[in-house]
Amino acid sequence: MTTSTKFLRALTFGIAAAGLLAAGPVHAKVEGDTIVIGSAISFTGKYSTEGIHAKNGYNLSVKRINEMGGVKVGGKTYRLKVVYYDDESTPARTAQLLERLIKQDGVKYFLGPYSSPTTIAAAPVIEKYKVPMIEAEGASRALFNKGYKYTFAVLSTSEQYLASAIALAAELAEKSGKKASDVKVAMVFENDAFSQDVRAGVVDDMKKYGMKAIIDDKMPTDLSDISATLTKVKALKPDVLVISGHTKGAATAARQLTELKISVPMIAMTHCEAAKVTKNYGKAANGYLCPTQWAETLSYSDKYFGSAANYNKLYNATYNQKGSVPYQAAQASAAVLVWKDAFERANTFDIEKVRDAISATDMKTFYGDIKFAPAGNNIAKPMVLRQIQDGVYNVVAPLKWASSKIDWPRK
């Protein structure tokens, strides 16, 4: 199969349709009793692991909504279906495929791609054609300072991901009789929009406490080797090591931390679950702090999935998995719930009225509260930090959400 054939190949979930009909200029894509939603997302390339997690989350929510009676609009019941194209983890391809979905396939409602770079590429296309997109995987602040009116995100923004680790390090230092300003921080980040936003949040919190970075490195483009940074870590002995490089970066970090026998009192990194660090590195991963948008131990619930724990159980049963569900899947499922809620509150397929209904969202879900600021970001849900303790991810911060006490310093 050629590359061009592969990325244009549509993957569908829901009721199959005989063909794609052109939609009118005002109303959404509807085929009989089926509402069609489009998504260009990563099934191949460097974001493929997370992209598949997101697709699974979308599909599980679509299945659940359809099983529970579908979506009611104008006195009629509709089912949901998602049409997917593989963007191969390439932002330019994401934009290209959205153009195809809108102009050729007639789709007017969208779920987001995976990653900040691809979502940043998607948003101008969504804005150009004035079609709403509810996204769950692009956390970059760059999405919410451009004045976009048609992009809405259910997740917390990226600068929040690891900033809580700095606050936690400050608190622990002060409890042990040291000054927060004495904490030495080492940082290594991928040079992409998401990870650089994560870094910005870390730097902002470091400034609050007067902390200094003794290492501030960028990962190589292919994310395959950070041994040069880790060699410096071994020599300079920071108190905190902060890492962000999506799944591949986390896998590389966990592998090389193990190989080089690096010991740091606190290690915080994004994408621990997606990189399967507990499965691949066992006890060596104990003590890692992993930010998450969601955890199954949190006290969130809704009428579709019940509690966060029930969602975790259903997802694992559906996809034959064990342990903690990747938060990328959970937030993807939440995005589909917002679509159902907005369709029913709008009670029409008029695109502008549905967009306005999305903008006015104020709902509780198994994933957390969802309420959009005028810029389209979710202002109702915090990030949490989990620590790997004997192979289990336990929430340790913020303290009001903690299910376990932190193990510190990391052994």
Outline the structure in words.
By secondary structure, the chain is of the alpha/beta class. It has two domains: 3-156 and 297-371, 3-Layer(aba) Sandwich (Rossmann fold); 160-292 and 384-401, Rossmann fold, CATH 3.40.50.2300. Helix content is 37%, strand content 21%. It is built from twelve helices and 19 strands. The chain has helices at residues 3-8, 48-67, 91-103, 116-129, 163-175, 193-209, 227-236, 246-259, 277-281, 308-319, 327-346, 351-359, and strands at 10-13, 30-31, 34-41, 71-73, 76-86, 110-111, 133-135, 151-153, 184-189, 212-218, 240-244, 266-269, 289-292, 301-302, 306-307, 362-365, 368-371, 384-389, 392-397. The strands form six sheets. Strands 1, 2, 3, 4 and 5 form a five-stranded mixed β-sheet that branches. A four-stranded parallel β-sheet has the order 10-9-11-12, sandwiched between helices.
* Distinct helical segment count: 12
Shape: globular
As for the CATH topology of the largest domain, it is Rossmann fold
Structural class estimated from helices and strands: alpha/beta
- Count every beta strand, where a strand is a DSSP E run of 2 or more residues: 19
Low-confidence stretches: 1-26
CATH architecture of the largest domain: 3-Layer(aba) Sandwich
Q: Percent helix among the residues?
A: 25-40%
- Main β-sheet description: 5 strands, mixed
Quote the average pLDDT.
Answer: 91
Question: Distance N terminus to C terminus?
Answer: 49 Å
- What count of structural domains? 2
CATH homologous superfamily name of the largest domain?
A: Response regulator
What proportion strand? 15-25%
CA radius of gyration is 21 Å
What's the CATH class label of the largest domain?
Alpha Beta
